[in-house]
Every structure is written in structure tokens, then in C-alpha cells.
């Protein structure tokens, strides 16, 4: 039987690489993967610190299970230019920093001790995508995803592509195209047996076929009582394969779902019904560790998008992301736009050849994920290149004719070689540029932008972002404008049936090169900060969700008389999915305010806006001259469902320390996020509180990053990482102004 084991522990890491050292283990730091070659400060760092070679080495012993089998290491990804050696012999070189590669060890294994050496070069090599030009994100060096030891039969299952060609028919079918690995070129014959299982157990169908070549197709016809995979009911099935030949037995199981996804000139359809796509772009970066975060953190990002931000789609900008993230999207019903690595720059012929291979690797890794609805086969925001993009599209359609292709551009009148015209629309904000007299245009006209008059599938893949970077601790009026810009786009897209949907730029802030972002090497483009703490604009998305899942009631204010220019809080935006709200100011009677469908007629849940349409001039003047406590209550179906009290005189009352989970797993480099907030006497964030807190951790684990944090805009975050031993972790958070807080974690 196949053995697949985690191979992440006990690597020896050091700066630099010398070819002479691949024959013997060299001194260094013992680390566990996923690993970042350099852990960077939160901001103000030199990104060239990791743009150089590094060495990873690991000893392992021969095992009886290796005899007569194929032994390999599967790297989920390493950044960027990787070379793997076994006992001094080069095994494989891999230049793509975002997709898996397999190092075949069999020919060079010795009975006794063996030594794996991996050279990782974090230099921005101009022959490797996305490098060669400027890049608006960082590509952190290291073996930053998992590594697996794989032991299989000499003839084994390499991959399987599962298709559901008639998912909407009463009787459905499955076609499984199975690809076999036979690295020694041995003659063989055997039987391939397959079963389809329901989640929770129970067989749907079974089939078997004789095999004597490297590819075979299995068909399962006339399947009944099958549930579709959908965003609200993401039903997954499993295909289990067993290969039996004279060389041994091999097994592989892959999950999949029954669904259809189609971009049309009239919008996007999931399972034959219209669905407006609403989502955000995501980088895979984290503070300090860069790309090197494990399964829990990857899954948590998917959960935040789906459950906290009410998104139904995410774009993996600008590269394939962790399999844990994609698998979680499958599990929770979050749609995915996945694309190849790159940012504006197209290199020479060798570069383009590597990029075309990126298309192959991305699709062959991810073609069974029902969450993925489109392949991005164009370098983000690049110029046209007919020959190059003809080939990326041809290859994508050959590998996977079940999905459409897209290519994200920001130039107008671009050649359309893809199935869907996907466009980064940054027109909102251009009114601020000198000489622009177009006014506050929210979206470009599709025909004007594309130069194509016939109906075509069309999607907005980025907006806002660099047009209006906003920090979580910025002045209230800037944050209100940030909120408004996101609302305007969401409303415009929702109201245009010809637009399939949109993915805003972007989910959270991220570190970047010195040429981009703020002067501290952070792009403040997110609706969350780098710790995934929401800015006020995050609630523009969250409020579009169903109140039965999560009631949102978020006023866009710090409730301070002198925060705004001139003073007061009007106009006041309340982001909510309630039917209406009642607002009470001091001793004055409560006012009932309904959602602003005049300015946002197409949103599922428009914001409530208090302005001169709902507040008389006399009241408006009063609210600016005196200051009182405010109370906001949201109503659904005539019943109060949530109330916020905004004190006129807020004082520090509570230091809130909340972890995403209290259970961690040992020996997995498992990390859980902790958020610290300073709250007033009514439980609201204190937006000006910026004093330090001191963190300490006792037990088998560590705090990622510094042990001293200064609260930014009243809050901060960090991750706790479990070590290899089981036990208890005791986190203590100390502050000069608050009582000491403690959290206990269990590591099992």
C-alpha cells in the first residue's frame, strides 16, 4: 500500500549554499516546516534580506518499506529556485515557487543513513515568473509549505481528473481519467478498481477496468440521488482508486463535487442559476513569517472570507495558493478564481516557457476542486502578447475543457483570447487626478473599455486598493470615504446584469517592496489589516450577508465630536443587514431610519445613512453643538436583534484578549491567531488607544514575532505557534492601564 507521511520535522537550516556541502550535514538551526528563511519585522525592513541562497538538510534512515518501492519527496511548494540533492547527487531542479514538485529518491537511496539537501534561492531571478520587473508583493524565500515522504509501488497512480459532464441532468455521470506513474518503464498489466463514496459513508457506484498503459478512463453512468455542490450546500464526494499489478498495490482518494459554473454575457451561473459574484482578492502573506503558515491559518482565511465578510468568491492573486486554502473553499462553498504567477511583466522566451508550465502545474494540481470556477491564464495587468496568451489558453482548454479561462488586464481594448474578459477597473478615484473632468465615475463602460461591441462574459477583478489606501487607524472621514467607495462599486456591479461580479482589492494589508505601498513597506489596500482585524470597510461586505447567519450593525464613526472636520457625526453611515435601525441621541427621541435605497438601490442590504434627508436642520445643528450618548438598535422582522451604545465620554475599561481557538496540535507547526482590543465601558473599540502590551508564553510553543506590541487604533494581533511537545500553553498579556489577561491553550 502507498505510504504518505509528513516530512516536516528536523530539518537543519542555514544561510548560504556551497555545492561542496551537499555530501555532509552542516551545522545550522533545527527547524520544522513550513519555514520562512527570514522572519521579518512588521514594517520598515529590507526585503533583500531573503533574496539570496539558503540551505535545508535532513538525515533519514533506510526503512524496510523502501525495498522494491518507489520513494520520493513531494514538496507542496518552495520559494523560489529550488534544487534537491540526495547523498550528493542532484535529483531535481524546480523554478516555480507556487506549485508542487516531486523529487524521486529511489536510484540514489542507500541502506543506512541518507542525506537530503535542498538549495533555495530567494533571489528575484529574471528568468522565473513573476520576477523580471517590479512586483507589488513579496516572494518570501523558504520551504514554506509542507513536504511529504511518499512510498509507492513501481507502477502507481500519478493523478486523476474527475469530470461531471451532465451535473444538472436527472441521471448524472462521472468520467475519471487516471494517469499512471511508471518511472522505471516496466511492463505491467493489472486492474484498476474505483468507488465513489458519499460524505459520511455509503457507496454511490463502483467500477473496474484492465490496465496495461499509462492512462485509462473510467465511466460511471446513470447516477441517481446525487446532491449538487453549491455555495450554500457544498456537498463533496470521494473517488477511491485501487491499482493492482504484478508490481504491487497502490491507492489514491480524491474529493470532487457535482456542479456547473458558467460565465455568460448575462452574468455568472452556478448550477444553471444566476449568481452575482461578490468577493475580494487574497495574498497568502502573514506578518513576520511571510508565506510560511500552516494548515489552520490557511483555512482560517477562507473562513473569514465566507463567514465574516459574506463573500462568495475569492481571487488567488497572483499565484496558486495553499492546497489547505483551496480545500477549505471546497468544504465551505467559497468560489475561487485561480491564476498563474505574475504581475505586469512578461519576460523572454525562457520566462514564457516557464509561465506556460505554470499553467500546466496549476491545473493538474487543482482540476478536481469544485470551488475553482475559472483559470487565470494571463499575467496580471500585463500588455497583450498574442503568441504567448494563445498558448496559455490552448493548454488550459486542452487540460481542462470543463472550465473557462480568464486573463486579468487593466489596459483598454485588449485582445480577448480568453473565454471571459476579466478587468481591473480603477476608474473610481481618477477624478482626483489633475485634468480629469469625468466626475465620480464608478465603473467604466464595458464596450468603451473592451472595444468589443458584441455581448461577452465580463467580470471586474480589482477595484479601489491603491486608489484610496486606508489604514485601520486613519481619521474617521477617510475611513468613511473608504467605505463609500466599496459600497459604490458593490452597488454598481449588483445593478448591472452584464457583469458577472467583482473581487475588490483586497482582503487584507500586506508587506511589499520599497517601490510600492506606504513608506513602511506595507500596502494598506485591505479591508482588514495584516492581522485580519477589520477596518470599517470590511463591514461593507459583511453587511451584505444574511442576518440569519450574522447580524451586522456597524456605524462608521468613532463617536467623537471633534474627530471630523467642522465636528459632529453627520452624515452618519450605519453598515447593517437589518431591515431598519433606530438611533437615539442623548435625551432626544429615537429616530427610525431605513436603508438608503435611493443611493444604493441594487445592494442586498444598503447602508442606513443619517443626513439631512432623515435629520432636520435643527437636529443637525444640535448634534454638532452638544455631545451625548448614542444608541443604535437594529431590527429584523420587527424585532430588535442588536443594540450598540456609544458613550459620550468613553474611558478604557477592558483589555479583551480573544484567540480563534484554544486547542492546538503538536508537531504540526500549528498556529492560532490572538487579537487584543482595548474596549470602553460599553464594549466598543477605543480607536485612539495606542499603548503597549507585553506578551509572554509559558509552555511548548512560541509567540510569532515580538513580545511587545503597541496597539494600533486600539487593537493588535499575533499568532501563537505550538511546538513538538504536548501540554499546556499559558499566554499572559500585560498592560499599564488594564488588568493582566491570561489564556490557556491545550497542545495535544
Helicity level:
10-25%
> Quick one: overall form?
globular
Give a count of the beta strands, DSSP E runs of length 2 or more. 46
For the biggest sheet, the summary is: 8 strands, parallel
Radius of gyration: 27 Å
How large is the count of helical segments? Answer: 8
**SS class:** mainly beta
The parts where pLDDT drops under 50 for at least 5 residues are none
Kindly estimate the percentage of residues that lie in beta strands according to DSSP: 35-45%
Q: Topology of this protein?
A:
Layout: E1 3-6, E2 11-15, E3 29-31, E4 53-61, E5 70-75, E6 81-86, E7 89-94, E8 101-104, E9 113-121, E10 147-152, E11 156-163, E12 172-181, E13 190-198, E14 203-211, E15 215-223, E16 237-245, E17 248-256, E18 261-264, E19 267-270, E20 273-274, E21 277-281, H1 295-308, E22 313-316, H2 323-332, E23 335-339, H3 349-366, E24 372-376, H4 386-399, E25 404-409, E26 420-424, H5 446-450, E27 458-462, H6 476-494, E28 501-504, E29 510-511, E30 522-523, H7 538-542, E31 553-555, E32 572-576, E33 580-585, E34 591-593, E35 608-610, H8 617-625, E36 630-636, E37 639-646, E38 654-659, E39 663-664, E40 671-679, E41 692-698, E42 701-704, E43 708-710, E44 715-722, E45 727-735, E46 741-747
Parallel strand pairs: 21-22, 21-28, 22-23, 23-24, 24-25, 25-26, 26-27, 39-46
Antiparallel strand pairs: 1-10, 2-3, 2-4, 4-9, 5-8, 5-10, 6-7, 6-9, 11-12, 12-15, 13-14, 13-16, 16-17, 18-19, 19-20, 29-30, 31-32, 32-35, 33-34, 33-36, 36-37, 38-40, 40-44, 41-43, 41-45, 42-44, 45-46
Helix pairs in contact: 1-2, 3-4
Note down, in words, how this protein is organized.
The protein has 748 residues and is mostly beta strands. It contains eight helices and 46 strands. Strands 27-26-25-24-23-22-21-28 form an eight-stranded parallel beta sheet, covered by helices on one side. Helix 1 runs parallel beside helix 2 and helix 3 packs parallel to helix 4 (386-399). The longest helix is centred in the middle third of the chain and has 19 residues, at 476-494. It is globular, with a radius of gyration of 27 Å.
Amino acid at each position: 500500500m502507498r505510504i504518505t507521511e509528513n516530512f516536516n520535522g528536523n530539518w537543519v537550516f542555514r544561510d548560504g549554499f556551497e555545492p561542496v556541502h551537499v555530501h555532509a550535514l552542516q551545522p545550522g538551526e533545527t527547524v520544522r516546516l513550513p519555514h520562512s528563511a527570514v522572519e521579518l519585522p512588521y514594517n520598515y525592513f529590507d526585503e533583500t534580506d531573503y533574496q539570496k541562497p539558503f540551505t535545508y538538510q535532513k538525515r533519514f534512515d533506510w526503512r524496510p518499506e523502501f525495498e522494491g518501492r518507489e520513494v520520493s519527496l513531494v514538496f507542496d511548494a518552495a520559494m523560489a529556485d529550488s534544487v534537491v540533492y540526495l547523498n550528493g547527487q542532484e535529483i531535481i531542479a524546480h523554478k516555480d515557487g507556487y506549485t508542487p514538485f516531486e523529487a524521486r529518491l529511489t536510484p540514489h537511496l542507500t541502506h543506512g543513513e541518507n542525506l537530503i539537501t535542498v538549495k533555495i534561492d530567494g533571489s528575484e531571478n529574471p528568468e522565473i515568473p513573476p520576477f523580471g520587473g517590479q512586483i507589488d508583493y513579496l516572494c518570501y524565500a523558504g520551504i514554506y509549505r509542507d513536504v511529504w515522504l511518499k512510498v509507492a509501488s513501481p507502477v502507481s497512480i500519478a493523478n486523476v481528473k474527475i469530470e461531471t459532464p451532465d451535473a444538472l441532468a436527472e441521471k448524472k455521470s462521472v468520467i475519471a481519467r487516471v494517469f499512471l506513474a511508471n518511472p522505471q518503464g516496466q511492463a505491467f498489466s493489472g486492474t484498476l478498481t474505483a468507488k465513489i463514496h458519499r460524505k459520511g459513508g455509503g457507496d454511490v457506484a463502483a467500477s473496474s477496468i484492465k490496465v496495461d498503459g499509462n492512462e485509462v478512463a473510467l465511466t460511471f453512468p446513470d447516477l441517481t440521488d446525487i446532491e449538487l455542490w453549491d455555495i450554500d450546500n457544498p456537498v463533496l464526494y470521494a473517488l477511491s482508486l485501487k491499482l493492482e499489478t504484478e508490481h504491487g498495490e497502490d491507492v489514491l482518494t480524491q474529493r470532487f463535487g457535482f456542479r456547473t459554473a458558467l460565465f455568460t454575457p448575462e452574468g455568472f451561473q452556478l448550477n444553471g442559476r444566476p449568481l452575482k459574484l461578490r468577493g475580494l482578492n487574497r495574498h497568502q502573506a502573514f506578518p513576520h513569517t511571510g508565506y510560511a503558515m500552516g494548515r489552520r491559518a490557511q483555512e482560517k482565511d477562507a473562513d473569514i472570507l465566507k463567514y465574516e465578510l459574506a463573500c462568495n468568491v475569492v481571487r488567488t492573486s497572483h499565484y496558486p495558493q495553499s492546497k489547505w486554502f483551496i480545500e477549505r473553499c471546497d468544504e465551505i462553498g467559497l468560489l475561487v478564481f485561480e491564476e498563474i504567477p505574475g504581475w505586469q511583466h512578461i519576460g523572454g522566451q525562457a520566462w514564457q516557457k516557464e509561465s506556460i508550465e505554470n499553467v500546466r502545474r496549476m491545473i493538474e494540481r487543482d482540476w478536481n476542486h469544485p470551488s475553482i470556477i475559472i483559470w487565470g491564464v494571463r499575467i496580471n495587468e500585463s500588455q497583450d502578447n498574442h503568441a504567448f496568451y494563445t498558448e496559455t489558453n490552448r493548454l488550459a482548454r486542452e487540460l481542462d475543457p470543463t472550465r473557462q479561462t480568464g486573463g486579468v488586464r487593466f489596459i483598454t481594448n485588449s485582445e480577448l483570447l480568453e473565454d471571459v474578459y476579466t478587468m481591473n477597473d480603477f476608474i473610481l478615484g481618477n477624478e482626483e487626478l489633475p485634468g480629469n473632468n469625468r466626475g465620480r465615475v464608478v465603473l467604466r463602460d464595458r464596450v468603451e473599455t473592451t472595444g468589443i461591441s458584441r455581448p461577452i462574459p465580463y467580470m471586474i477583478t480589482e477595484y479601489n486598493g491603491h486608489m484610496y489606501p486606508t489604514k485601520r487607524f486613519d481619521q474617521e472621514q477617510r475611513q468613511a470615504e473608504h467605505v463609500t467607495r466599496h459600497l459604490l462599486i458593490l452597488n454598481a456591479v449588483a445593478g448591472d446584469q452584464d457583469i458577472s461580479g467583482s473581487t475588490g482589492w483586497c482582503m487584507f494589508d500586506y508587506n511589499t517592496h520599497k517601490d510600492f505601498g506606504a513608506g513602511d513597506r506595507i500596502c494598506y489596500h485591505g479591508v482588514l489589516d495584516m492581522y485580519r482585524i477589520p477596518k470599517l470597510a470590511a463591514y461593507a461586505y459583511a453587511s451584505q450577508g444574511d442576518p440569519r447567519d450574522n447580524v451586522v450593525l456597524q456605524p462608521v464613526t468613532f463617536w467623537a465630536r471633534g474627530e471630523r472636520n467642522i465636528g459632529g457625526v453627520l452624515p452618519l453611515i450605519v453598515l447593517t443587514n437589518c431591515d431598519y435601525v433606530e438611533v437615539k441621541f442623548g435625551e432626544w427621541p429615537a429616530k427610525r431610519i431605513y436603508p438608503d435605497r435611493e443611493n444604493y438601490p441594487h445592494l442586498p442590504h444598503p447602508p442606513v445613512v443619517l443626513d439631512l434627508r432623515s435629520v432636520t436642520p435643527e437636529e443637525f445643528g444640535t448634534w454638532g453643538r452638544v455631545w451625548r450618548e448614542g444608541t443604535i438598535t437594529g431590527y429584523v422582522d420587527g424585532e430588535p436583534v442588536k443594540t450598540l451604545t456609544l458613550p459620550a465620554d468613553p474611558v478604557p475599561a477592558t483589555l479583551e484578549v480573544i484567540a480563534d481557538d484554544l486547542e492546538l496540535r503538536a508537531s504540526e507547526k500549528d498556529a492560532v491567531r490572538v487579537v487584543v482590543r482595548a474596549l470602553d465601558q460599553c464594549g466598543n473599540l477605543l480607536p485612539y488607544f495606542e499603548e503597549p502590551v507585553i506578551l509572554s508564553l509559558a509552555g511548548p510553543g512560541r509567540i510569532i514575532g515580538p513580545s511587545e506590541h503597541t496597539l494600533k487604533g486600539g487593537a493588535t494581533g499575533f499568532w501563537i505557534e505550538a511546538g513538538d511537545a504536548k501540554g499546556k500553553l499559558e499566554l499572559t498579556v500585560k498592560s499599564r492601564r488594564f488588568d493582566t489577561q491570561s489564556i490557556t491553550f491545550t497542545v495535544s
